[in-house]
Amino acid sequence: MPDRLTATAIARDLAAGRRSAEDVFDATLDVIQRREPALRAFAFFDPELARAQAWAIDASADRGTRGALAGVPVTVKDVIATKDMPTGHNTARYAGAMTGVDAACVDTLRQSGAVILSKSVTTEFAATQRGAMTRNPHDAARTPGGSSSGSAAAVAAGMATIGLGTQTGGSTIRPASFNGVWGWKPSWGAISREGLKLYSLTCDTIGFYARDPADFTLLADVFDLDPAPEPAQVRGLRIGVVRPPLWGQVAPAMRTALARSAEQLRAAGAEVSDVTLPEIFDGIDAAHAAILLREGRAAFLNEDRAQGAALHPEFRAMVANTAGQTPQEARAAYRCADACRAAMDELLAGYDAVIAPSACGEAPVGLDSTGDPSMNGLWTLMSVPVVSIPGFTGPAGMPMGISVITRRFTDRTALAAARLIAGEIGGAIAAEESAEDSAEASSAA
């Protein structure tokens, strides 16, 4: 699908009668037939089912009632329920399982005229870093990230216009970075999770992929997100630069990308300053892991009882609490998260937006792991909106993204700021350059 076939363009063209929903589907199908055999991004795809949706949209006599997303092809992560496609969670027990109902987010998209195109590959239960079968469209030897592997890869390859994912750790933002597309993790609780396979009540969040940020603004309207200030220019923006607690795991090229972003934004007239996180954030990643362990024990108990030894040992260990987590330790983790959320809200109130790495670096080679999510857990646990901007290329020629973060429930601010920031940052980073800049950054720190 050509890059110009964005959700915004499709909706505009259908409203004006310049294109039909079937035209859009045919263009999408052409890309799928060429790219899907190698990428393996889809867990389920029935072209006739999708075409029937397009026909129904075209048959509508009143173009004005078709919905804001009329004809837009959407792929749905396979842990999110769909009434007319299996929801398999990439696990044997649910292979071919039909829920008979749409998740709330899918229902909303369908009511807005979207063509629910396919189910996209996820890691098992979207709760592990073990590799899925999907390959990165920029380099088939590399992972597209996870757990929203298929949705990110499909959008990057042009096999869908919008990708629906989830994030509990880094499952939306990291794949956006690895695949060179726009990624958006909305504020926790802003979009209903009804119909999503539960892992963590505290962290599970619906996420989106697109090739144009204007599509996210359209989605914000569809999901009726809160009004918020929307900056109109970079000049004068107060932008903070955050190096998260696990900064030591960030590759030199990504360190260079963040530093260059700060320089480019400063040159464009933004007021850019480094952000020093309070000491309480030193324990936030351990708290995130502890909360996932505590909530995962409950989430996968039924699977352990039903599947026994057939369930992957990673989930069985979680249910059995082989780590020996105590209630006191769990309570301490929740207290840490609560305190950090309050501190983060106060901190973000002093900026129009802050920027941080979307991943530790480029997508790693191999499919056994979906990559390191350590740049994302902080923001997921803080419940704040995150928008990953594509624009940098690392030494291996792979995409790298920069995250834009704002206060909780200011998603429209994050989207507007990200669009402005994207116009100022980006570029290729050579291995020699990233190593030199990383050494300078380390000595300065």
Automatic annotation (TrEMBL):
GO terms (molecular function) for this protein are: catalytic activity
Superkingdom classification of source: Bacteria
Where does the Amidase domain start and stop, copy by copy?
25-414
Note the SUPFAM superfamilies from the entry: Amidase signature (AS) enzymes
Sorted alphabetically, which InterPro entries does this protein's record hold? Answer: Amidase (IPR000120), Amidase_dom (IPR023631), AS_sf (IPR036928)
Q: What is this protein called?
A: Amidase
Supply the source organism for this entry. Answer: Poseidonocella sedimentorum
